[in-house]
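Good morning,

Attaching, inline, the backbone tokens for the sequence recovery test we're adding to the shared suite. The designed sequence is right after.
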């Protein structure tokens, strides 16, 4: 059985549409890389080995520290450089242990007080807030399920218009300069990518079809909670937009995604617009060759369910709704191949166990309101 280990912030459909409009070579190169991230599969043995490298990276020292690496400062290794791919296969490993982000030099780490650049400062500071949010608001002391350091790579690629999680580190491009600006300016984008690491340590949803859409959705949910926390916004005060600083044209593209109204975050022209859907009536049955079966498109459905519950409950989204979603991700009945219905049932179980029948009923209703057919509680 094979696994896809890369997680892309942007969907290939989005980048493809903007490339068709602008003919920007940087977007074409980004699109090629996204397609590789989302289609490259690895054996279970490769995945397990790379996970062991990741989880054991801290050794015997106190870890879970922030480490910022600069992709423009590549460490030359005469034996091994495979940083353009999500992970390194075992048959291409050198004699020593290696992870792709180790190809890049460290420019800032936990004990540093002065950042070498604004990009390093943004990511370093954002990771600190996100790490504290996980611990203080979600009761998660290690977001990756282990003590390993939190590695982030900035200035990835050449005018690279994306951010991604490769199963061991988060990577941020500077944008193509025409459609997209830097991918590290929004703390919610940083939180989204780090959340993929958390999801991998729990349900580890396969990155295809409904399970892949859940992977993207849970990352969006955690990201919006972090944004609301930083902005000191309640659920009903938030605009529920992710990536508001990402697009350079704020008129056509106010944000990357809307959890409140999936499909309204941006538009290119009358034919090309945000394709995300927010109701099962609009669910898109897509080939695995189109956005891995709609992982970025159909994720709007569980996103909307979370939005509806959080606003129905009021207050801070992380106090009740967020805890329900987090508990569902670690529910032993939620597996790599879980569907929307299976995850919805897990949220209802979590709501009942954590907060009682009344909250469970409201949780169920949020899923009914996005078109899921569920059994009575």
């Amino acid at each position: 059985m094979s696994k896809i280990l890369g997680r892309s912030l942007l969907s290939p459909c989005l980048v493809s549409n903007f490339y068709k409009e602008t003919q920007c070579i940087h977007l074409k190169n980004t699109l090629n890389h996204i397609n590789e991230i989302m289609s490259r599969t690895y054996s279970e043995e490769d995945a397990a080995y790379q996970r062991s490298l990741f989880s054991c990276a801290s050794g015997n020292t106190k870890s879970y520290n922030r480490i910022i690496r600069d992709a423009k400062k590549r460490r030359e290794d005469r034996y091994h450089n495979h940083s353009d791919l999500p992970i390194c296969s075992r048959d291409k490993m050198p004699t020593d242990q290696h992870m792709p982000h180790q190809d890049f030099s460290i420019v800032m780490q936990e004990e540093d007080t002065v950042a070498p650049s604004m990009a390093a400062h943004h990511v370093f500071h954002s990771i600190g807030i996100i790490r504290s949010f996980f611990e203080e608001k979600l009761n998660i002391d290690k977001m990756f399920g282990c003590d390993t350091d939190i590695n982030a790579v900035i200035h990835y690629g050449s005018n690279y218009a994306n951010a991604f999680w490769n199963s061991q580190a988060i990577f941020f491009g500077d944008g193509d300069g025409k459609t997209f600006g830097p991918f590290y300016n929004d703390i919610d984008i940083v939180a989204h990518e780090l959340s993929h690491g958390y999801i991998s340590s729990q349900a580890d949803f396969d990155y295809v079809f409904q399970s892949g859409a859940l992977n993207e959705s849970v990352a969006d949910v955690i990201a919006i909670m972090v944004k609301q926390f930083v902005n000191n916004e309640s659920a009903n005060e938030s605009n529920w937009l992710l990536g508001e600083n990402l697009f350079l044209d704020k008129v056509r593209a106010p944000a990357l995604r809307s959890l409140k109204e999936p499909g309204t975050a941006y538009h290119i022209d009358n034919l090309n617009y945000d394709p995300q859907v927010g109701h099962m009536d609009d669910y898109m049955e897509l080939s695995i060759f189109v956005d891995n079966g709609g992982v970025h498109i159909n994720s709007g459905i569980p996103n909307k369910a979370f939005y509806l519950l959080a606003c129905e409950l009021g207050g801070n989204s992380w106090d009740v709704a967020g805890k329900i979603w987090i508990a569902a991700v670690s529910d032993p009945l939620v597996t790599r191949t879980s569907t929307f219905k299976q995850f919805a049932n897990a949220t209802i179980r979590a709501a009942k166990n954590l907060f009682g029948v009344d909250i469970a009923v409201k949780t169920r209703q949020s899923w009914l309101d996005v078109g899921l057919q569920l059994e009575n509680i």
